[in-house]
Specification:
alpha/beta; L-arginine/glycine Amidinotransferase, Chain A; three-stranded mixed sheet; 18 helices; 17% strand; globular
Length: 446
């Protein structure tokens, strides 16, 4: 059956800032405290979305979350009016306000793990929103993400949106950033690769957290009704995590039959590749594009985000296209590797560099900003129309963002109740544009 991979990008929120909140994310730590531009960030994201839509790819979006997230501050003991809660929290616990104000839902690769209908027992597309429990600022996302996915994929005869996994360390789940699907054709049966950093209860001695557990991966595979013989569970290497690869998509990306990865991506590289070959037996022959440490040191791979790129089937082209951040072009080793790669006869025939610097400074490249969803024509027709990018929607969102988003935002301004008022006005307006309903956001339900 014919199917096409769609990309649903997270729309960058009005409180986009550099709070330096994410342990193990080197870019986030390095740029913590800098002044951000929420307006520039959302416009960069919209430009990338329009580029793919104009090329004929299916491009969708997921709305930003309400920030600051007042329920977190109230649960922490702050009371009064919303403005009083923000002011009191900023005086007594400014770090908590920074976490409640993070625009991290923009990184839709962490929104959920997705299995297409060709792989699932009931023939529906399955979504499991990530619980993201390793970091406080992301652990507040799961339920609103579930609401967003249920808005975009509302037809329960074709889509199944699950609850997030239990909020317990055994089931630590970071979503599609640790998941790759390979296949001969998008509409045919595929191999789903789940990558984890640790097992439940394991003593972890790494420099940075191992955010995904094996048990979370297994639970998602079971709930999606996947064929066990077509599932592969691979351990991410501690060397990669310690170098700053906080998710597998910082060192690995794949589509169709091609897996593009760094030599140090997996703990047991040879065993990983053999496991993928076994799972693909009878379906397709995997194509492995391995980038040697000697040619691209893992430090360069991580700072340039070579692998946190979108690997796409580009309309009218017979080889894959890699949509990489400008930082990949500006890093000598990765620029040289890309030039040599496309000059050869391998599966990746072109690299296109895009500007997503506002996201990159917080540790999110082009691949972080998107959630991949394989859809048949019937499934695509069942997607909520307002969730799909069009020229008209792009223009409308550009005007909306230019009106409602600040050009500059310092982390020290997050305690200003005026920012909350501005953000809510932006989300109220977005609710009308996208038809989200009168109670989509928590502040609208009070």
């Amino acid at each position: 059956m014919f199917a096409q991979e769609a990309n649903f990008d997270g729309l960058i929120g009005p409180t986009h800032n550099y709070g330096g909140l994410s342990d193990g994310n080197l870019a986030s730590a390095r740029n913590g405290g800098l002044v951000s531009s929420p307006r520039q960030g959302v416009l960069e994201g919209l430009t990338k979305m329009k580029r793919l839509a104009d090329a004929g790819l299916v491009q969708g979006l997921l709305p930003p979350h309400e920030r600051p997230f007042l329920p977190l501050l109230r649960r922490a003991g702050f009371s009064g009016s919303d403005a009083q809660v923000v002011e009191a929290a900023w005086k007594q616990a400014p770090g908590l306000v920074r976490k409640a104000s993070s625009a991290s839902p923009m990184w839709a690769a962490n929104a959920a793990t997705v299995s297409p209908s060709a792989d699932t027992a009931d023939g529906r597309v399955h979504f499991t929103p990530a619980n993201l429990l390793t970091t406080l600022h992301r652990s507040i996302e799961g339920r609103q993400t579930q609401r967003s996915l249920s808005w975009a994929f509302a037809d329960t005869s074709r889509f199944s949106v699950h609850d997030p996994l239990p909020m317990q360390a055994d089931f630590a789940d970071e979503g599609a950033a640790n998941h790759v699907r390979l296949c001969a054709e998008q509409g045919g049966e595929g191999v789903e690769i789940f990558v984890y950093g640790r097992s439940a209860g394991e003593s972890w001695a790494g420099a940075f957290p191992a955010r995904q557990t094996l048990e979370a991966c297994q639970a998602v595979a079971r709930s999606h009704g996947l064929d066990p013989k077509r599932c592969v569970f691979l351990r991410q290497s501690q060397a990669a995590i310690d170098a700053g690869a906080f998710h597998n998509d910082v060192v690995c990306v794949g589509t169709r039959t091609t897996l593009f990865f760094h030599e140090l991506a997996f703990e047991d590289r040879h065993g990983a590749l053999e496991a993928i070959r076994r799972a693909a037996n009878g379906l397709f022959e995997p194509v492995f594009v391995e980038v040697p440490e000697a040619e691209v040191p893992i430090g360069d791979a991580i700072t340039s985000y070579l692998f946190n790129s979108q690997l796409l089937e580009w309309p009218g082209e017979d080889r894959l296209a890699l949509i990489a951040p400008k930082e990949t072009e500006e890093t000598e080793t990765t620029r040289g590797y890309c030039a040599a790669m496309v000059a050869g006869n391998g599966p990746i025939g072109r690299v296109e560099f895009v500007d997503v610097r506002q996201s990159m400074r917080n540790g999110g490249g082009p691949a972080c900003l998107r959630l991949r969803v394989v859809l048949t024509p019937e499934e695509r027709a069942a997607v909520t129309p307002a969730a799909l990018m069009t020229d008209a929607l792009h223009d409308q969102l550009t005007v909306w963002a230019s009106k409602h988003y600040r050009d500059r935002l310092s982390p020290d301004e997050l305690g200003d109740p005026a920012l909350m008022v501005e953000s809510r006005a932006a989300l109220d307006a977005l609710t009308q544009i996208l038809g989200l309903g009168p109670d989509f956001y928590p502040f609208q339900r009070v």
